[in-house]
Write a structure and sequence with these properties.
The complex is a heterodimer of chains A (about 240) and B (about 400). Chain A is of the alpha/beta class and about 240 residues long. Helices cover about 40% and strands about 25% of the residues of chain A. In chain A, the strands form 2 sheets. In chain A, strands 6-7-8-3-9-10 form a 6-stranded mixed beta sheet, sandwiched between helices. In chain A, strands 2-1-4-5 form a 4-stranded antiparallel beta sheet, with helices on one face. In chain A, helix 3 (about 100-105) runs parallel beside helix 6. Mean pLDDT of chain A is about 90; it is low at about 240-245. With about 400 residues, chain B is mostly helical. Helix content of chain B is about 75%, strand content about 5%. Chain B contains 16 helices and 4 strands. Chain B has helices at about 1-15, 20-60, 65-70, 80-110, 120-140, 140-145, 145-175, 180-205, 215-220, 230-250, 255-265, 265-270, 275-300, 310-325, 330-350, 365-375, and strands spanning about 210, 220-225, 225-230, 305. In chain B, helix 14 packs across helix 15. The longest helix of chain B is centred in the first third of the chain and has 43 residues, at about 20-60. Chain B is globular. Residues about 1-20 and about 385-393 of chain B have low confidence and may be disordered. Chains A and B meet through helix 2 and helix 3 of A and helix 11 and helix 12 of B.
């Protein structure tokens, strides 16, 4: 249904400032329908700002944000969420005092199609049977892994075409990180484009199609996942000496 | 003294090598001193309550018993019907405090500051009720169709109070969003004085009265073994209906879900597509509506309003919100009811048998003593959650 040649979400020549601090410098990136792409970078490289700019929590000083062919640089976050972009925030940020069900319902806050919402809820129960077991529990009482499932479910409830994920493996027990990446792949296979920001470069590149490397606000590498995994500079700085590729 | 000496000895050994030890020792000893003082106050509270109750019970068993005589020769004792009467009066006032407390608690939950001008929102409700009810009385409707008039008065006062709360948010608080929390707090005190003075300018400085209530309403009737005046029954029922409505709004509607989400995390609430500003306005509006209802209840109970009417009930309702656990709506209502019951019954139950003079004038002291006691024993309030590091800022 989507023309694969038209990017779903795009940053065109974006510069972002926090006060006098120049965060993003001439960033250009495009996410195409159905892709799984990742953005790598160290601390303070501008990864989170890139996500916030894409979703309108930060407005760029120059440049454009394009969602499905429409320039949305000055549109609100909810405008963009309504048109198919959403995010799983860093550290999940569930509404801890609300039940799991209420968290999921809030994901569908802007939707009015009751049948579609009910269908998506069923879909999420199939994807995460654990979420169904915990549906009436306060989400603050869940384990880290379960919270991650609810956070992904909440994002999926807005029926997105592109899902942004901010550090999905952060704060998870090492045993859960692998399972988490498998879930991301599973969501991707349902046809949702995924844009993932990760510190765990090895793991992220092993499931991604393409990737970018951000350094002090500038895109320094833009290549396929295999090429990035093989890149000697990247191996040295992010994958560590023992990067198994 | 002795302990202090020991500590000095231990620090002199390390003096010059580790200065931090001296500082640590000083800090620890100061904390201990404060702790001891607080424990003393806690104990004093418990002793007053225990001895007071003991004296009360002794007096009930034998009005002539030597203990009662010795503590307070004039003590008359309290009969069961008198106690019930006091309790109902306290609960009726407490329900009113609870309705006001909801506004403090909701705004705190969403914006994290105490809106001290909320008492004036309540006063605005009471004033508008005074105007409309007098107009209705002039038209001769007040006595004949009282319940219809009451509904009309309540609705207009809800509208006025809601408008005051919403305008206040828009003009005074929204420009300060993101400023340190102390700033809107101080602003709210300014807004409070401003609204009092607006009332003086518009309506004059004197006390104004509500028309007298129909006699069938103020009659006592028995209910569940209690002799309840009709007015207090109306007050309790109105408060119960308002509280049920509020509970439904907050727990069962999409707006309520949005309010709770905004209270917890504004950034993520916006990511869900919730209009955070509109939700904050809704919170002020709902709190204002509850204060409007409370204003009418004040009018029914005391039949007199003045521009400073909002002050004491406002501070007491704030205490009720803290007693119940600020940010918790059920807690605000429970805090209001228990504060009202305590201030009505405690002077005669606890203080009179202890031989305190002029107990009936001590209700305000009792209300704030309850606040201090709860803060000493359970700082998060009866139903409150522990505040996170972030909330305490």
């Amino acid at each position: 249904m989507n023309n694969p040649a038209v990017p779903l979400l795009e940053l065109r020549d974006v510069n972002t400032h926090y006060g006098a601090v120049h965060i993003l410098k001439d960033v250009d990136l495009a996410i195409y329908p159905g892709e799984l792409v990742c953005l790598l970078g160290g601390n303070a490289s501008g990864k989170s700002t890139t996500l916030k700019t894409l979703l309108g929590m930060v407005t760029p000083t120059t440049g454009e944000v394009v969602l499905d062919g429409e320039v949305v640089t000055h549109q609100s976050t909810s405008y963009r969420v309504e048109r198919g972009a959403t995010m799983v925030p860093e550290n999940r940020r569930l509404f801890k005092r609300l039940s799991v069900r209420e968290n999921l319902e809030l994901g569908a806050y802007l939707r009015t199609d009751r049948d579609g919402i009910a269908n998506d809820l069923e879909r999420i129960f199939e994807l995460f049977p654990r979420v169904k077991e915990r549906i009436n529990q306060k989400s603050g009482t869940l384990s880290g892994g379960e919270q991650q499932m609810v956070a992904m479910g909440r994002a999926l409830m807005s029926n997105p075409r592109v899902l942004l994920m901010d550090e999905p493996s952060m704060g998870l027990a090492p045993a859960l990180v692998q399972a988490n990446f498998e879930l991301i792949q599973q969501i991707h296979e349902e046809g949702v484009a995924i844009f993932m920001v990760e510190q765990n470069a090895n793991m992220a590149l092993s499931i991604a199609d393409r990737g970018w490397v951000l350094q002090t606000g500038r895109v320094v590498l833009d290549d396929s996942a295999e090429a990035l995994l093989a890149n000697p500079d990247l191996r040295a700085s992010y994958l560590g000496e023992a990067g198994q590729g | 003294m002795h302990l202090g000496g020991l500590r000095c000895n231990s620090t002199t050994v390390t003096l010059g090598t580790d200065v931090a030890t001296t500082h640590d020792a000083k800090r620890i000893s100061r904390v201990l001193w404060v702790d001891r003082f607080l424990t003393f106050i806690r104990l004093a509270f418990v002793v007053v309550i225990a001895v007071g109750l003991f004296a009360f019970i002794a007096q009930q068993i034998d009005p002539q018993n030597p203990l009662a005589r010795w503590l307070n020769p004039d003590a008359t004792g309290l009969t069961a019907p008198q106690f019930k009467g006091l309790l109902v009066t306290g609960l009726a006032q407490g329900a009113m405090y609870g309705l006001i407390a909801l506004g403090y608690s909701m705004v705190y939950g969403v914006l994290g500051f105490i809106n001290f001008a909320h008492g004036e929102v309540f006063m605005a409700g009471a004033m508008s009720g005074m105007i409309t009810s007098n107009k209705l009385a002039d038209a001769g409707l007040w006595e004949d169709a009282f319940l219809f008039c009451l509904a009309f008065v309540v609705i207009t006062s809800i509208l006025i109070s809601t408008a005051v709360a919403v305008i206040m948010e828009r003009i005074a608080y929204r420009p300060l969003r993101g400023a340190p929390r102390l700033i809107p707090l101080i602003t709210s005190i300014g807004v409070s004085f401003f609204l009092q003075n607006v009332s003086v300018v518009l309506l004059g400085p004197g006390a104004k009265s509500y028309p007298s209530l129909p006699t069938w309403l103020s009659q006592k009737r028995s209910l569940l073994g209690f002799e309840i005046e009709g007015t207090k029954l109306v007050v309790l029922l109105t408060a119960a209906v308002s509280m049920a409505g509020l509970w439904f709004l907050v727990e069962r509607t999409k707006t309520g879900k949005a309010m709770r989400a905004v209270a917890e995390d504004k950034e993520i609430a916006a990511l869900m597509g919730i209009d955070v500003n509109r939700t904050i306005v809704t919170t002020f509006a709902v709190g204002g509506a509850m204060a409007g209802v409370a204003g009418i209840l004040w009018g029914i109970l005391f039949r007199s309003v003045i521009h400073t009417t909002g002050f004491l009930p406002g501070i007491k309702a704030f205490s009720a919100a803290v007693v119940g656990g600020i940010g918790n709506l059920g807690g605000a209502m429970a805090g209001g009811l228990s504060l009202g019951a305590a201030e009505a019954t405690a002077p005669l139950v606890l203080l009179e048998p202890l031989g305190v003079d002029g107990v009936s004038q001590l209700r305000d002291a009792v209300a704030f003593a309850v606040l201090i006691f709860v803060l000493l024993v359970r700082p998060s309030g009866l139903f409150g959650e522990r505040l996170s590091e972030d909330d305490r800022a």
